[in-house]
Design goal:
By secondary structure, the chain is mainly α. Helix content is about 70%, strand content about 0%.
Amino acid sequence: GLAQESMLREQAWLFLEIGRRLERALLLIAWFRCTLIARREPEVEAELLAFVLRATESLMTYQREHRDSPRIESVLGLLLFDERNPRSLSAQLRKIESAVTRLGGSAGQIQLPDEARPVVEAASLLRLSDLSSLAAFDADVPRRLVLDVLLERIALLLRRSSDVIGRRYFVDAR
């Protein structure tokens, strides 16, 4: 709270912003991978969907837009793709991309900085994915394999961006 209100929007603030958004994105991915990948009884899945909505502080937003109980496609739409929802993965990726680009960019630079490339790739993968494919279970295994693979790839890319930032801006004091 205090940093949000009183810090200049310079490099230190960008590091805080990137860290907070990376943490939120990776936590959201972990919640999805732990709760929504495996096939479960419909009643159990409905409870897990409600849990994820509560944990992401998005239950009221969901209820305002959907009058029914949580459904996988609607929840994925809200928490993965809907940039109007500040808790969505898409919103996190957009904010990370903006901060990382400002952090590593310089006047006249025509290419993305190295630390922004994995984030741009992650955002593109998400934007190009198909909601109904993500919500569907694989025919051979009782899992949402397309969703799992996408989330695993995005998490890897976010960690890669974090590693590039660490190597570029921080000195190993060992």
